[in-house]
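Purpose: get a first structural picture of the assembly so the mutagenesis plan has something to point at.
Setup: two entries, given in the order below. No constraints added.
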Amino acid sequence: MTVLTPLDTRLAAPPTTTGRRRRGWRNGLTIVAFLAPSAIPLAAFVLYPMIQAAWISLHRWNLISAMQWVGFGNYTKLVADPKTRAAFGHTLFYVVGEIPLVFVGGLALALALNARLKGRSLLRGVYFLPVVTSWIVVALVWRWLLNPAVGVVNHVLALVGIQGPGWWTDPRWAMPSIILASAWKDLGFVMVILLAGLQSIPEDVKEAALIDGAGPWRRLLSITLPLLSPQIFFVVVISLINGFQVFDQVYAMTGGGPAGASQVVVQQVYDLTFRYSQAGSAAALSWLLFVVILVITLLQTWGQRRWVHDA
Amino acid sequence: MSRTRIGAVALAAVGALVLAACSSGGSGAPATTGAGGTTAAAEPVTITYSNFISNGGNEANLAKIVTAFEAANPGITVTVKTLPYADYYTALQTDVAAGTAADVVDVESATYGALADSGALAELKGVDASVYKPSLLAAYQRDGKQYGLPSSFSTVVLFYNKDLFDKAGVAYPTSSWTWADEQAAAKKLTDSANGVFGDYQPISYNEFYKTVAQAGGTFLSSDGKKAAFNSPQGIAAAQWLVGKNGTVMPTAAQGAGTPDFDSKLFHDGKLAMWHTGIWMFGANADAAFTWDVAVEPGDTQKASALFSNAVAVTATSKHQDAAQKFAEYLTSSKTMVDTRLAAGWELPTIADETQLGAYLTKGAPANRQAVFDSLDKTVLAPSIGANQNQMQDAVTAKLTEAAAGRLSVQDALSQAEAEVNALLG
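Result (C-alpha cells, whole complex):
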C-alpha cells in the first residue's frame, strides 16, 4: 500500500469535479465487479439462510403446518434444557480433545516433512489425502476399524494383550472414537498450512541462531514457533470454528449415540429438525451456536496481538 | 444406521431420476387425446408411490401388485420409490414440507396422526369400508374422516433355530412359555466357545412398552397423560431386557444394535432365539437350518406387539382419483392378498378371514398358526402425537445407559419417566 500511494497520485486524472465523480463511479463499479463472485453466493447461501433461520427461530414450526409466533420462547426453552448443555458439553469435549491432537501431530509432521527427506513429496501427498476424502467414507472406514467385535484396532490390541474398549458402541468411548477419526482426517490440513509457514522462515535467521549456538529445542521455541505464529493463529481459528460445527463424522459414526453420549450441537440441530419436527428450536439452537463461535473468534482476534508475530 | 441412510440418499437420487424420466415421458401423451368429451379419468396419468413396506426383500412382490394394477387400470402408470424404514419418515416429512411428496405414501399408526393433523393428507371419500378389518380401518380415521387405508399388519413372535435346540437337548418353545422358561433355555443354548448366543431382543422402546405389558403393567396411565412404566412391572420388564445383555445375548460392544446384526446372526445359525417381526419370514426362507416360530413368552400375561401400516393420498397430489384407486387396490385387491400370502409378507388387512387360510400352509415356518394366536392378546404402541420420536428416543437412551452399566435400572426408569412426563405435559 505504502509503495502504491505516490504512484496512484501521479497517475490520477486532473482534479476537476466531473473527473473525480466519474472516477469514483468507475471505481465503485470495479469494486462491485470484483466482489460479486464471492458476495452473491455469500448473500444467497449464507446471509439469506441466516436471516431466514433467525425468523424461523422465533416461531414454532413442524416444517409442514403454518408457523406460530413464539417470540424468544424457543431460546428460553433451549437455555433451560439440560440436553442443550449436554450438547455443548460434548462439543467442547470434542474441541478440547481434537485440536491439541491435530495441532501437535500436524506440527510434528510439518517439521519432519520440511527436512530433506527421501520421498517427502509422496509423504506430503499421503498425509494430505484424508483431508480431501469424503467424511462419510472416512467415518465408515473408522467405524470398521474401531468395531469392537471385528475391528482391526481391537484385534491388534488383543495381540499385545490389551482388551480393547467398546469404542463407538460404548457411551464412555464414543466421543474419543470420533476424536480419533477426526484427528486422523484433519492432520493433513494442519500439516500443509504449517509446512507452508515453515518454508517462509528465512534461512539467514535460522543460520544466525545456529551460529549463535542455539540447540534444536531453542531454535524451535525461539525462532520457528514465533515466526510460525501467523499460520498457527490461522490453524487455531479455523480448527475452533470447524470443531464447534462438528457433524458429519458424528452423524455417520454414532448418530449422536449411544444413549446420546456423542450428541453434539449440530447433531442436535439435525435431530430437532428432522426427527422431532421442531424446526423453530433447531433454528434457535443454530443461532446460539453461531453466537458462541462468533464470541470465541472475536476473543481470539483480540488476543492475537499478544502472541502473533506480525510478518 | 449410516449405511442405510447413505443407501436412502442413493435410492432417493435414483428415484428422482426415474421420476424425472417418467414425468417427461408421460407428459407428451395426453396432448393428443381429448378432441371432445374425454373425461379426465381417461387421460393417461402417472402417479408416484413412496414406500418402505417392500424394502429389504419384498420389492419384487410389490412390483407384481403394481403391474396387476396397471393392467386393470389402463392409463394409470405407477412409479414406485422404495426407502429403508429407518429413513422413510424423515424423507416423507421433508418431501411434504418441500411440496414434492409422492401421490401415494406409506404411513404407520404411531406417526400418521401428526401428518393428518397438519393437513398433508387428503381425505379418502367413498371407500368400501366392508372389505377391511374394522379395528385397523378405524386406526386411520380422525374425527370420522378416513385419511389412510390399512395395507398390512404384523406381529412380533419368537423365532427359534430348531437345530440349535436339538443340539443342546432343549425342548422347543411352546405357546405356554413364560420368561422363566425362555431364560432357562437361553442359558443352556448359549455356547460362547462357538459364538452361539441363546437369545436376542433389542433393548429399546419398542421392546420395552411390550414387555411392560407382558409383566402386567402399562406404559402410559389409562388417560394417556402420565408415564406409568416406573412401576414394579416396568422394573421387571427393564430388568428382563437388560439382564439378557452380556449373559445370553450379545452386548453393544459385540455388535448388537448395528444394522442387520441380529438378522445376520440368526441367518448364520449363531442365534437360538430371536424376538422379531413376521416380516422376517421371507428373508429366512433360504436358511441352512430348520426354524420355527412361537407366540412370544410373557411374564404374568401374554402381550404381542401389533403393528400396522397404511397408505395415504397426499393433499398436494394432482391425481387424487387415480391415487385413491391405487391405494384401494394396494390394500384390498385379490392380487395383493395372494401375493402377500404366497410371499409370507406382512398380512393383508382384509375382513374376509377365509382368504387368509392359505397363509397357514405356505411353507416355513411350519407353525404359522402362531401368527394368528399372537393376535389373541396384543399391545399397541403408545401414540402421543408430535413428541412421539422424542419419547421413543428418551426411553431407548435411558435403557441403553442401563445396559451399559451407567445407570441402575431403577434410576434409568425414574429419569425416563421424568422426560416422558415432560413431553406429555
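Residues 17-56 of chain A form the longest helix (40 residues).
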